[in-house]
Design brief:
By secondary structure, the protein is α/β, with parallel strands linked by helices. The chain contains 13 helices and 14 strands. The strands form 3 sheets. It has an 8-stranded mixed sheet with strand order 1-9-8-5-4-2-3-13, sandwiched between helices. Strands 7-6-11 form a 3-stranded antiparallel sheet, with no helix packed on it. Strands 10-12-14 form a 3-stranded antiparallel sheet. It starts with a helix and ends with a helix.
Length: 439
């Protein structure tokens, strides 16, 4: 009988063979017959080999690949703590909920406190505020960066304001100089939703490293993928331990999966009304969840991390390709612009149809859709007009005029690395044919 090391090598070779057979065949893209997706997973045999290798361990929760994946993220961003979780939405929930912990004393967020955010975004940035009984304060965004208006942000701050929780829209960093200045001036928590911007930079520094906490998503549409999955990153050790507690049922113990008595005081401490020496592994200091990542997911993520720099470069080049495609028709469109001092690893190419255009967003989007070219709106549009948020307690500061305009006139196309020159050629042809009807 072969030993397990030899069998693993043999299995890895067969998995590589399988990849070549199942996934490596040439894609014969046929315009109008094959879809042009706005996003999708891009991988090779290494992700499959890692996933199978992890499954052979049959260590089904966090294990060796989770440690490897976390360390790669930490090294890439230059941060001290990376806490893996089961989705980017869970990462947002954990990051925000951590700030409600009694361990933070007077700095903790309490029900009724206000949190500044934007209505032109994704629900998972806003829902944790509501779920923790705090008040979202919605301010407008700027066009063509689609990020928070710093002027509106400053005007929205009141004595009730305790936190800023906003995303880098579609990979385009918000004005971190001004946002961090205001957060420091008013002693506010800052959470960066970095789910669409993993690999973007501001002033030469990676987004996700400016706030007290930041989040990443590994959903297939994002810069790298584990299928479902996410992470919280921070340089604050105390916040990292609180996040881990909320992620791991609310337990006070910080031992990794499979470890015991890391603190050396497992049976010698006193907590609340529990008896002295109660097992620390079963002491709960938060009202928590179970939102961990599996090691099989982390194994895929570890292989994906090696590709992140090239993925980011592809996104930047694809953004330039689409810019060149739309630029001749700038009389009809507002084209996207990077925030000053930013180097975005674009999640997508976002376009707004001008009010003076002879056609609507729906007409163009329908034309793309008829030709199997996927488009998306800027997520929720104006989230306070969504069915689930109609009866939520919130405050609007100033006007949401740009947000409403985006809701009615904006869409985006993909920039992900799986797009090919033939696909871009198809987009260009469909766009030209459509515009020709109005010239």
């Amino acid at each position: 009988m072969k030993d397990k090391t030899s069998l693993r090598k043999e299995i890895a070779g067969l998995v590589a063979e399988y990849y070549q057979s199942a996934f490596q065949g040439p894609l014969q893209f046929q315009p109008g017959k094959n879809p042009v997706h706005y996003a999708g997973r891009v991988f090779d045999e290494k992700e499959l080999i890692n996933a199978v290798d992890a499954s052979l361990d049959f260590w089904l929760t966090e294990g060796r690949f989770s440690q490897d994946f976390s360390e790669k993220i930490a090294d890439f961003l230059g941060v001290d703590n990376v806490i893996l979780t089961n989705s980017g939405s869970s990462a947002n929930l954990l990051a925000f909920t951590a700030l409600t912990s009694e361990k933070l004393g007077d700095k903790r967020l309490k029900p009724g406190d206000e949190v500044i955010t934007v209505a032109a975004g994704f629900p998972s940035t806003i829902s944790p505020i509501i779920q923790n009984n705090l008040i979202p304060v919605f301010v407008d965004v700027d066009i063509p960066t689609y990020n928070i208006s710093v002027e509106a942000l400053e005007k929205a701050i009141t004595p009730k304001t305790r936190c800023i929780f906003i995303a880098h829209t579609l990979g385009n960093p918000f004005n971190l100089d001004e946002v961090t200045r205001l957060a420091e001036k008013h002693n506010l928590w800052l959470i960066e939703d970095n789910c669409d911007a993993f690999g973007s930079k501001y002033q030469g520094r990676y987004t996700g490293t400016f706030g007290h906490l930041a989040t990443i998503s590994f959903y297939p549409a994002h810069h790298i993928t584990t299928g479902e999955g996410g992470a919280i990153v921070t340089n604050d050790e105390a916040l990292a331990n609180i996040v881990r507690s909320f992620r791991d049922w609310g337990r006070d113990c910080y031992c990794s999966s499979g470890e015991n008595n890391t603190c050396g005081k497992r049976f010698s401490q006193k907590f609340s009304d529990l008896p002295v020496g109660y097992d620390h592994k079963y002491v709960y200091s938060e009202i928590g969840y179970n939102l961990k990542m599996t090691d099989i997911q982390a194994a895929i993520g570890s292989a994906q991390m090696d590709k992140l720099p090239s993925f980011c470069e592809s996104r930047k080049q694809n953004f330039k390709t689409l810019t060149a495609m739309f630029a001749p028709y700038s009389r009809f469109f507002i084209l996207p612009e990077a925030t000053e001092h930013a180097d975005p690893a674009w999640f997508s190419f976002i376009v707004t149809v001008k009010e003076s255009s002879p056609f609507s967003r729906e007409e163009l989007v329908n034309q793309f859709t008829a030709n199997l070219i996927e488009t998306r709106c800027l997520f929720a549009g104006n989230i306070i007009k969504q069915p689930a948020y109609r009866h939520v307690t919130y405050r609007v500061s100033g006007s949401l005029a740009n947000t409403d305009y985006i809701m009615n006139n904006t869409f985006f196309l993909g920039t992900y690395p799986g797009l090919t020159p033939a696909m871009f050629g198809h987009i260009d042809t469909v766009l030209k044919e459509f515009i020709l009807k109005f010239e």
